[in-house]
Design brief:
The protein is an alpha+beta fold. The chain has helices at residues 2-30, 197-214; strands spanning 33-41, 49-52, 57-59, 72-75, 78-81, 92-96, 129-131, 139-141, 145-149, 155-166, 171-183. The protein has two domains: 1-32 and 195-215; 33-184, no CATH class.
């Protein structure tokens, strides 16, 4: 009888472990912090180049006014978001000055603005870049950080890190590089302060197993 009860408890524990493994897999697929660097060839003066930050790549968009499959678009120094007048999405941004990129652990709750007929989001304030004028005519990213709400309502912290194919020598203009951290589950946190899902699952399993042994 005791042997039967032990086997029954063991099978029950294995079922719990299986369920937790499924939970971990689902969490890994649907909740992840993405830290990416993306360089976009924005040299075309006529056509926008569209990007999907979740995929971390340039995407082909047939109709930007109806598509939710892009977040930011680039054309030379121009940058638009999929929100406001530029697209049907929820994209909007807030600029943060005098703060380090690494120190932003939570996205602000408010202050986000989308593109309007008068001005695009990334041109507000001092804009994302400074033009040096002659003799060099360089375009240099400003030392600011943006927090972006994406087209589908996720949050990313973002900064511009270059405008040239060769940023060190300022050769080949029109290649915009950005660095961003994207939280893909709709929450506003960029930190890793929460325990990973597998750790939580193991803790729960250990607690359950201890309870079974006590009984």
């Amino acid at each position: 009888m005791k042997k039967f009860m032990f086997i029954h408890k063991l099978n029950f524990c294995m079922i719990i472990l299986f369920i937790f493994n499924i939970s971990i897999t689902v969490s890994a697929v649907h909740a992840e912090i993405h830290h990416n660097t993306l360089t976009v060839d924005a040299t075309d003066r006529e056509n926008w180049v569209y990007t999907d930050l979740l995929r971390g790549e340039v995407v082909d968009i047939n109709n930007a006014t109806t598509s939710l499959n892009w977040d930011l678009a680039f054309r030379r120094t121009g940058v638009i978001v999929n929100g406001g007048i530029s697209g049907p999405g929820e994209a909007a941004a807030v600029v943060l000055k005098d703060v380090l990129f690494e120190d932003i652990l939570v996205a602000p709750e408010e202050g986000y603005v989308s593109d309007t007929e008068q001005i695009t989001t990334f041109a507000t304030g001092d804009g994302w870049y400074t033009y040096t004028g002659p003799p060099n005519h360089w375009v240099l990213p400003n030392d600011v950080v943006y927090v972006l709400r994406t087209a589908t309502g996720n949050y990313a912290k973002l900064r511009f890190i270059g405008y040239y194919e060769d940023n060190e020598n300022k050769v080949g203009s029109g290649f915009i590089s950005i660095e961003y951290v994207l939280q893909d589950d709709g929450t506003r946190t960029f930190s890793g302060s929460e325990p990973p899902a597998d750790v939580v699952a193991k803790q729960k399993l250990a607690t359950t197993w201890a309870a079974l042994k006590r009984n």
